[in-house]
Design goal:
Blueprint lengths: L2 E5 L7 E7 L4 E2 L2 E2 L2 E2 L8 H13 L9 E5 L7 E6 L5 H14 L5 E5 L6 H15 L17 E5 L7 H22 L7 H13 L4 E6 L1 H7 L2 H7 L7 E7 L7 E6 L1 E5 L8 H4 L7 H15 L5 E11 L11 E3 L5 E3 L7 H15 L4 E6 L4 H6 L3 E6 L2 H14 L2 E4 L17 E2 L7 H10 L9 E5 L5 E2 L9 E2 L4 H12 L8 H5 L1
Parallel strand pairs: 1-9, 2-7, 2-8, 8-9, 12-14, 12-17, 13-14, 16-20, 17-21, 18-19
Antiparallel strand pairs: 2-5, 3-4, 6-7, 10-11, 11-14, 15-16, 18-21, 22-23
Helix pairs in contact: 2-3, 3-4, 4-9, 7-10, 9-14, 10-13, 12-14
Bound molecules: ligand BES, manganese (II) ion and zinc ion.
Length: 507
């Protein structure tokens, strides 16, 4: 992981990044960017060259726009004039990502921040730097090909005020990178047992986290039959991970459930090859809820969190479950399996039923790469949000926006509900209605029990993966949901269980 430190020092670096705001300065081609004064006092020559260069290249100051001023015979040797847009957290996040890319072949870079800037700037900048510098590789590569950037110095007017923001950014970035690592890992390694062990290991670094992993014997004894059915086609048996963070001051208990299909072939209703190629990402929800819970512990958030990750590999084999099978879920509800490729909702249903019956939760949120229909409706970067609770939906949407992840609230029309009825069981796992993401959400809702009105579902099928670099995202797993969940948990930690802010509830 990139080393990022705060400093007040003024040594002259080889590579310097200076912020350019979307200024009021108007040139011939419209409004231009404005060089922002920084706590790093660049000498006069540097500032004058930078000012002339910004106007010469018509720098817009747009968030993440970088123009590199090369000064081959001078020091600093290069100045990255980096757009921060409006200078809010999102602008600085984009700037951080752009600096990480522009400086990837330099061993270090110094970034100047405006004096007395809001600490959110440091959080955004650091998150952008860490997340865009992230890489996942299985094979080693020749040293000349590997990126060189190893350390970043953020120059501020005083370090103390910004240390907490940097610490939060570090915990969030670490958790996001954990989720990315797990999701990027090829499924030849990534069995349910492997994934459960990685979560156990990651949790072990934080005292106060506890992990229980249920193996098939115990899943059978307790009746988690849908997890067992989905996992039965694989020689690598399923697991249920229960990860808990239980700080003494917590007044609210949040249960997070994440879909953990370590590979989804579709089962007997097998997927065509193009639809199967990336199905190692089908545990992105499980990775996100586990990583967010670890971040809650790292940040010592005063909220109780339980992450449930049902893990299974959905394979086609002589022992696989079949279309037409009826599975009896944890707690007794039954589902007629019309499509073995609608496996995610089956394993989530067991975990949600368990949460609703046994975990005494105040709020229940599930994350899942659940349907191809999500991206048809909302595209690659916007997750589908479902909830019958306006305050919960709004809080999650606000957290997502602040985190730089996007969600859009979707409807669950009452008159679609009948389509989930089965002739032989309580429910079917697939319908002819067409609204695939909506129907999956309405199916899950049936398992929320008494938490029905305090439940939300995030269908993050497409956002879990990036096909190309995009701001703080690199190609591959995005770790989608970690940042949204940590923001939201932080907010919940400051509220009474009813959703009312603590101070207001007390008075
Ligand atoms: N894991 C898939 C959904 C998915 C598709 C995630 C593409 C990410 C990218 C899920 O298990 C699935 O196969 N869903 C089916 C449901 C259908 C059979 C009702 C789908 O969306 O086609
Ligand atoms: Mn599937
Ligand atoms: Zn799936």
């Amino acid at each position: 992981m990139l080393e990022i430190r705060l400093a007040v020092e003024q040594t002259v670096p080889d590579t310097l990044a200076l912020p350019v705001g979307k200024g009021a300065r108007t040139g011939e081609s419209g409004p231009g960017g404005e060089l922002l004064p920084t706590a790093y006092a660049a000498d006069r020559a540097v500032r004058e060259e930078a000012l002339a260069f910004i106007s010469d290249v018509e720098h817009t100051g747009g968030a993440g726009v970088v123009h590199t001023l090369a000064r081959p015979l001078a020091s600093p040797r290069r100045v990255l004039l980096t757009g921060v847009g409006a200078g809010d957290e999102a602008g600085w996040r984009a700037a951080g990502a752009a600096i990480a890319r522009s400086a990837r072949q330099q061993p270090s870079v110094t970034v100047g921040l405006p004096a007395a800037v809001d600490p959110a700037a440091v959080r955004g900048l650091a998150e952008g730097l860490w997340l865009a510098a992230y890489r996942f590789r299985v094979a080693t590569e020749p040293p000349d090909k590997a990126p060189k950037l190893a350390s970043v110095t953020i120059v501020v007017d005083e370090t103390g005020r910004y240390e907490p923001a940097l610490a939060v950014a570090r915990a969030v970035a670490e958790a996001t990178m954990l989720a990315r690592d797990l999701t990027n890992t090829p499924s030849d390694r990534k069995s349910p047992a492997w994934l459960a062990e990685r979560i156990r290991e990651a949790a072990a670094s934080h005292p106060g986290l506890s992990v229980v992993v249920r193996e098939p014997e115990q899943l059978t004894a307790e009746g988690f039959n849908a997890i067992l059915a989905v996992g039965n086609g694989s020689v690598r048996p399923p697991r249920l991970v229960e990860l808990s963070w239980q700080p003494p001051q917590a007044r609210t208990h949040v249960v997070l459930v994440g879909k953990g299909i370590t590979f989804d072939t579709g089962g007997i209703c097998i997927k065509p090859r193009d639809g199967m190629r990336l199905m190692r990402k089908d545990m992105g929800g499980a990775a996100a809820v586990a990583a967010a819970t670890i971040a809650a512990a790292a940040l010592n958030l005063p909220v109780r969190v339980t992450a449930l990750a049902p893990l299974a590999e959905n394979m086609a084999s002589g022992t696989a479950y079949r279309p037409g099978d009826v599975v009896r879920h944890y707690g007794g509800m039954t589902t007629e399996v019309l499509n073995t490729d609608a496996e995610g909702r089956l394993v989530l249903a067991d975990a949600m039923a368990y949460a609703a019956r046994h975990l005494d939760a105040d709020l229940l949120v599930d994350l899942a790469t659940l349907t191809g229909a999500q991206s048809v409706a909302l595209g690659k970067r916007t997750a589908a949000l479902y909830s019958d609770s306006d305050p919960l939906a709004e809080a999650l949407a606000e957290a997502a926006t602040a985190a730089g992840e996007r969600v859009w609230r979707m409807p669950m029309p009452d008159d679609y509900r009948d389509a989930l009825d089965s002739d032989v069981a309580d429910l079917v796992n697939s319908t002819q209605v067409g609204a695939g993401s909506v129907m999956a959400a309405m199916y899950l809702r049936e398992f929320a029990g008494t938490l029905r009105d305090r439940w939300a579902h995030l269908d993050m099928s497409a956002p879990a993966w990036a096909d190309s670099p995009d701001r703080e995202l690199v190609k591959g797993a995005t770790g989608w949901g970690v940042r949204t969940l940590v923001r939201w948990l932080d907010r919940v930690a400051g509220e009474a269980p009813s959703g009312v802010p603590v101070e207001a509830a007390a008075s």
